[in-house]
Amino acid sequence: MPKESAGCSAPYPEAESVADFVRHLDEVRACIAAAAERVGRTGAEVRLLPVSKTVPEERIRLAVAAGCRTLGENKVQEAKREWRNLSELPLTWSVIGHLQTNKARDVAAFAGEFQALDSLRAAEALDRRLQAAGRGLDVYVQVNTSAEDSKYGLPPDELIGFLKKLPQYGALRVQGLMTLAVFTSDTERVRSCFRMLRGLRDQGRELGLVGPGGLSMGMSGDYGTAVEEGATVVRVGQALFGARSLPDRHFWPGVTTGERSAP
């Protein structure tokens, strides 16, 4: 199978200037294009979603100056704070982490996209808040393709039944599926998670349940593999902003030292 090209993985130097961000964006986009070309795709088919979790607001401003217009955040409270403090910037927010229903009001108020829908309780709470606000929201349904208890997401065998119930929530616009692959340096195990999501998307597409049929998969340590397996969105943080001071297990329960990097 194809391998990721050199220069598309760790180490991740910190971006401290607009020029640094421009260079990192160019490097990541080049890696996306190379991965796409290896399987007969084009880089234009893949949306790069920069992930700014833990990044100070002054550095987010640099990223925006370098051309970033949508940023992903795992935690609703962080995204809400940044949305308020950076409101003068031409910036929209994608919430990519698990949603507690008591945060649905916040997501409905400011998010342009939600990529971690995995329960009818969350769908109902979001829809109610969105209907009250008179707006809709693009959503991706999260699937647990690694079968790890530490990860959120629907079990694969529950996905189709879940998708069939979503049309009752009229404010939610299903765009496709999202997953976090297993955290390991074993590329073939990672690839199997992405292949599973693509297969599930294909099933949902046949039934008209996944909208455009997007696949949000791949992060800093594995986005090349994800693109090879059909990703239409890759969520990249460290490869753009630089390595985080906190270990991956702080963000992703169950991750141990030495495993591949989170977004």
Automatic annotation (TrEMBL):
Protein origin, superkingdom: Bacteria
One GO MF term: pyridoxal phosphate binding
Cofactor(s), by name: pyridoxal 5'-phosphate
CDD domains, sorted: PLPDE_III_YBL036c_like
Organism: Streptomyces capillispiralis
Domain spans labelled Alanine racemase N-terminal: 25-244
Signal peptide per UniProt: none
Protein name, as recorded: Pyridoxal phosphate homeostasis protein
Family in the record: Belongs to the pyridoxal phosphate-binding protein YggS/PROSC family.
Gene3D superfamilies in UniProt: Alanine racemase
Entry function: Pyridoxal 5'-phosphate (PLP)-binding protein, which is involved in PLP homeostasis.
Stored InterPro entries: Ala_racemase_N, PLP-binding_barrel, PyrdxlP_homeostasis
Pfam families per UniProt: Ala_racemase_N
Residues the record lists as N6-(pyridoxal phosphate)lysine modifications: 53
Keyword list, A-Z: Pyridoxal phosphate
